[in-house]
Protein 1
Amino acid sequence: MIQMSKLASFSTLVISLTLIGEVLADPTVVAHKAEIEKPHDAAEAMAGISRTKTEVRGWDHLVEVLARRGGDPVQLARVFQDKRLPWFSDISFSPRPRESHALYRHFKNKDKISAARTFMKKWRRALAASEASYEVSAAVITSILLVETQLGKVTGDHTVLYRLARIAAVSKPENVQWNYERLRTQGEQVTLEELQNRSRYLEDTFAPEILALLEIADRNRIDIFRVKGSIAGAFGYPQFLPSSFLRFGVDADGDGRVSLFSFPDSIASVAHFLNHFGWRKGLTRAQQRAILWNYNKSDAYVDTVLDIADLLSSNKPM
């Protein structure tokens, strides 16, 4: 029987993550030893960070941000000194990012919709159980999984830690200044204050995700550098960020672990996420859009998910 109400509890469940194409079944796997000597204590770690940027491969600003937010300085020094992490380099970003609807148009073609309908038939029990527990329709859940990873086919092979670090580190003052000069040279009408505000938003959003990923790796003794996902640092079939995994992951198949590379778990986790933000039956289109905005802050994304859900619900031929 599928248990829909059980949240991920680290005291009773273990986590399964994709590690270079594999699913980790044994949570006792010892993490790969870092290629540098571990600092002896927090004071020594922070002193080393302060002495020279090269000790943390140019990530000094981010490491300090993470330490101020409660990260363990010893762990942070060890991770950001690891030679598997590329050196920090300039990170371009925009103060007013916007996605085009054209980016998502192909998800509504005949083949994609047909694949989604086949998926709904195959996983009808898991989808029905989630709908009963969380009031999120099978069509909406399937639509999200289709847009996020083409129903599990494309989950990403990027190192999640590095991708999260790249986004969180845009707030480095030298990086903000570099972007300001770059955009002004290109003729963009942008102020330094706009870029500073946008960089702080990205730091506030993604620095906690790094700490959440460190927590996942630490508690399960997995090698953080082998956790793979998208260019935005999300992973699994539903492309959750680490904090969403910790908050909304559900062990729906009852195997004693939460895996975002299990369709029953992924289906229930998506439903739990939406339900948490207020999804119920009978919502208006505007209310649905507002809730989906928490999943991806993109009008094009939200519109696409709802359009596909409408197609799947109607069951009309394409």
Protein 2
Amino acid sequence: MIRTGITYNTEITPRTLKGVIFDLDDTLYPYRQFVLSGYQAVAEYLQTVFGVNVEKELVEKYLSGEQNALEGVLRDHFKVVEDSLLQKLSYVFMAHIPQIALYEDARVSMALLIARGKRIGVLADGPLGMQRNKMAVLGLEPLLDCVLYSDELIGGEASWQPCRDPFYIISLQLEIELENMAFVGDNPLVDFVSPNELGMTTIQVVRPDGAHAKDAPLNKHYTADITISSLYDLADVFQEIESPVL
């Protein structure tokens, strides 16, 4: 297994890790794929209803880093952009069946951890229908011991990260104490503050194409215990935590 880069940001107390919770977007699959797939669905709708072809423009604006790419394209083609149109296109974007695929390192690392007897869960943050569609396309649920859609919890969006409630619930579902679980995510702005406070082992995967690759944690409480550049390193991290070299 290729060791692509592991950084320990704090001293880790040796412990047995019985399970791991994965974030979904940009951790297990490239979020960019979802956005491009959504823009394709939006472009097809606009082509059908209005006879305008905007897919190339949408993709170019998005890949150039332009904020609100969709609104920018619409204003190039329509004198007035009604809120009702924006709401409809937002629905098309979120409700479409996405063309996405797992990162290869996600597939391999999950298989290795399952083979080693680790219990695996996914915490899917975001609008419920959208996240369910992603999970269905990725075909992950049969492999997992637990999937939690935070939007289903009381409070809806208030239960998205950095809320603690999903971690308590997954701990109960997996029947594993929080201190014996790891959380793997990508976003230092929200992903790690709650699991850090709960005594979990936190691991950030930093992918060059990730939406949060250049984001910095607000302070030490938001910083993951360990940073890796690929999920290929995850099995090694578990081994080092459970059997440290003295």
Protein 3
Amino acid sequence: MSVSVDSENGIYDSRNNCNAIIETSTNTLIYGCKNTTIPNSVTSVGDSAFSGCTGLTSITIPNSVTSIGDYAFYGCTGLTNATIGSGVTSIGSWAFYGCTGLTSITIPNSVTSIGASTFKSCTGITSITIPDSVTSIGSQAFSGCTGLTSITIPDRVTNIGQQAFEGCENLTYNSYNNAKYLGNSTNPYVVLVSATSTSITSCTIKNSCKVIYGSAFKGCTSLTSITIPNSVTSIGYSAFQSCTGLTSITIPNSVTSIGTGAFYGCTGLATVNVKATSVPTGGNNMFYNCSSSLKIYVPTASESAYKAASGWSTYSSQIQGKSF
């Protein structure tokens, strides 16, 4: 198959006989095929550029490219080799979804974010290293990667979306005090993924943990004691949902975001101490269906800000200032 654009076309081109269509003004590759060679003058691979191209087996993304669009290689089941250049800073949502032929991929140290479902259902990938540059991993980013046995997550990651590792049943975890973690060789405890069992009664989270993953302690009805260290920056959606045995919890000053339904259904939860002077981003229903006597204590100087903030204002009558 060959793709070409008439040389008189002022909007699109097919420079260097690349077998692709490029938007001239933006240097964005908008359509490619199994025989495409991406020129080193291209700066972005557009949304759905190779989507459904099952005949594509190998692609080299040059260093000139800074972004890979949403659905860019969606469903390219024949793709076995993809080289991502060192200029790429973002990989879009669903970019490599369903690329079942991929067995490995190297994410360059220039990438700062991995989008939602980016590598979802890439069942052939067995290991992946997320570079130190990445701070955000989107929801379902690696969901359904059933062949994945190891993943390296850097300390700089501060946000991990819902179900990012859902269905990765063969992943190897690091355990500490009733919880399972993912991380790196220097810090194996970056992300607390889940409790070791829903029957645990206590957990002291490792003091180098950055993220409490969504649903990490969901349904741990016997949990009565939890210690969150000052290293944690993010508490995920439904992280403590239905932990009916919890009566109090202290959220340290380091936390900057609390996900939707984080303490949903914690019917025994009566005391929450939130030490952050800057109001953490709050999701909907954070404390929905907690104890009727719930009190949320916040720094006195920040009381008004908490009561007015999105996600927190619902609980304004339960928020009280306190000197920590």
